[in-house]
Amino acid sequence: MPNMNRSSLRARRTWEHGTVAALVCIGFSVVFLVLVGRQETNMAEDRATAGWDRVLPLIKLGHLPAVLPDSTADKTQAIQVLNGRGRVVAATRQLAGKPPIATLRQTGGGVRTQQTLCSPAGLKGCMTVLLFKVYSQPDGIWLIDVAAPVVPWYGNTTVLLLAIGASLLMTAMTTAWAFRAVGMDFAPVEAIRTELAEITATGLHRRVPVPKYQEIRSLAETANDTLDRLEGAYQQLRRFTSDASHDLRSPVTAMRIQVEEALMYPDDTDWPQAMTAVLAGIDRLQAIVTDLLTLDRLDANAPLTREPTDLTQLVSAELDRRTPGMQIVKDLHDNVVITCDRLRITRLLANLLDNAERHATSQIRVTLRADTVRADGSTATLEVIDDGAGIPAEHREKVFDRFTRLDTSRNRDAGGTGLGLPIARQIAQAHQGTLTVQDSERGARLVLRLPVCDPSPCH
Ligand SMILES: Nc1ncnc2c1ncn2[C@@H]1O[C@H](COP(=O)(O)OP(=O)(O)OP(=O)(O)O)[C@@H](O)[C@H]1O
Ligand SMILES: [Mg+2]
Questions:
Q1: Does residue 388 have its Cβ closer than 6 Å to ligand 1?
Q2: Which ligand number lies closest to the CA of residue 294?
Q3: For residue 133, what are the CA distances in angstroms to 57, 105, 121, 140?
């Protein structure tokens, strides 16, 4: 059953169409009835003139009977003939023995005069009375009074009922058509609504039907785009949850086995060594949980504590902090200043350098410069290049997905969580920057670009 309450667009459109149709029908009917009324009035006058025509020869020939025969054309027509002294000398049956119906005696003016009189000489209803003068009679001017019921403005009742009936029919048909047409127009919207209502968390693969009409097609396409994104986000969330559970479970399982073994053979257990292993597991759990919390804050767009920062100094300090396990070549331009959350950018740098250290063979190269590559200002470009195995082209985007660790890393080093690069990229994006893996002759080349702040607000 369609929703027809006051807020229903279908009801409203139907009501509007019905009202317009009714007004148009009323307008046409009134014009039609007025025309019919005029035509009827003219015909009544013609019949009155015919009555006069019928009686006049009888007067002239002196064959006027006291009771005049009824008009065959109009049975309601009543005729009276008054002589020069104003006495009724002849009349049709309805007026036989009645006094004159028209009291006004016309002596001057035209041959024909018209009056409207109500119940004249006992006749029913209002009458249009035409008075015709007959000259050249021995006792003066005679009068022929022809009375017929007043023609209403709409002509007659039959035409009036016909017009009302036709108007009601037209209005009803238009309203029904509008109801159906609007219903058909909105059918695709209803189909979209029904489909959306049925799409649940388990049916996110479903899409709403796309109709052919442009306006609603855009709505359906937008809804489907939204569903695409929603499905993508949902699948990512599921993947993330399952990866997170898996990564949390592994150290817990390892710690449990170590503790159980130690408790089973307490005397044979090297307790400091066992506790150190458990502590390593706890460290790993702590690292994962910390990373997850960091990601959660970044996902929630937590506000950054931005301050003007000399990126050159920050990178230098981060490099100096590291124990030189391998050769580090640095090429840093002076005084590259950005507005950033210092802690977060340090976290980003640490991750890039940790990765490089973990994967490099013997050398890490770090460069920093300020380029004017953006229309709205300069960009600081930091590159961290190592001489390790590198990241294959097909995995250069994948490494930014949460919990991604390439097979080589899993084999070489079980310590990583696979959250470092996703966090680093989100930090870069929170600073309106980018972090990408780019082509390199040898090893991996991670490129960070961040907007350089204008000198004035920074200093
Ligand atoms: N410099 C690099 N050379 C080769 N592979 C790399 C390099 N940096 C990252 N990767 C690959 O990308 C994966 C994801 O890196 P990411 O920093 O996100 O995680 P991780 O280093 O494994 O763990 P975490 O950073 O959380 O300790 C790594 O596991 C590794 O396989
Ligand atoms: Mg890392």
A1: yes
A2: 1
A3: 13, 10, 20, 10
